[in-house]
């Protein structure tokens, strides 16, 4: 497996048109890129990405989502192997990609990349991480979306397995996980 933090996520930052990004985003990216490697690079970008993702839920806020994707790309690039929030950083980025697909369903590549990063989250985080069932649920929802779009049985099976995995781990979100499993 290639080291996740060595390069930008495949194609994501290139797909985001630089001229659509806020100058403040470009400034953050430049400062983070120029600084010495630290755990804070990924944290700063991931938190800002999450903030922009929240704003993108409002009508006509597509540019805000593009900012979120750009910051999430940088967060994933700079996340450190020993960062205790590594899974959260990667999962947050995957959520921005999935949200992008949900809004414009014009490019399935965003959904494919979201699935890839949700899977990486599960592979890379410790099994005792409290958010693990939520990450399985996110993976299941993304596979279900892709199944509904393409009708490939392997996506249905992957969604079902992810929801079963989420429901098998004690968590307050268990009713949601079971509901998602029931909707498969």
Task: Give a quick set of tags describing it.
184 residues, mainly alpha, 2 domains, 9 helices, globular, TPR-like_helical_dom_sf
Q: What's the oligomerization state?
A: single chain
Query: Tell me, what's the shape?
Result: globular
- The whole-number mean of residue pLDDT values reads 87
User: What is the end-to-end distance?
Assistant: 30 Å
How many individual domains? 2
Largest sheet: none
**How many strands?**
0
InterPro entries: TPR-like_helical_dom_sf
Question: In short, what is this structure?
Answer:
This protein is about 70% helix and about 0% strand.
Tell me what you see in this structure:
The two termini are 30 Å apart. Helix content is 70%, strand content 0%. It is mainly alpha-helical.
Write the layout of secondary structure elements.
Blueprint: H1 12-15, H2 23-34, H3 39-55, H4 62-78, H5 86-104, H6 108-124, H7 132-150, H8 153-167, H9 174-182
Helix pairs in contact: 2-4, 3-4, 3-5, 4-5, 5-6, 6-7, 7-8, 7-9, 8-9
């Amino acid at each position: 497996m290639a080291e996740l933090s060595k390069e930008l996520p495949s194609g994501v930052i290139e797909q985001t048109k630089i001229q659509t990004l806020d100058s403040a985003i470009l400034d953050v990216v430049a400062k983070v890129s120029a600084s010495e490697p630290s755990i804070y690079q990924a944290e700063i970008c991931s938190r800002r990405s999450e903030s922009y993702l929240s704003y993108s839920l409002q009508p006509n806020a597509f540019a805000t989502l593009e900012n979120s994707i750009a910051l999430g790309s940088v967060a994933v690039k700079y996340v450190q192997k020993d960062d205790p929030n590594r899974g959260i950083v990667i999962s947050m980025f995957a959520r921005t990609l999935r949200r992008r697909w949900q809004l414009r369903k014009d490019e399935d590549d965003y959904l494919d990349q979201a699935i890839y990063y949700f899977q990486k989250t599960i592979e890379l985080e410790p099994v005792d991480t409290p958010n693990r069932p939520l990450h399985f649920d996110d993976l299941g929802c993304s596979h279900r979306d892709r199944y509904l779009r393409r009708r490939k049985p392997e996506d249905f099976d992957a969604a079902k397995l992810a929801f079963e995995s989420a429901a098998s781990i004690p968590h307050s979100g268990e009713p949601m996980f079971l509901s998602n499993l029931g909707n498969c």
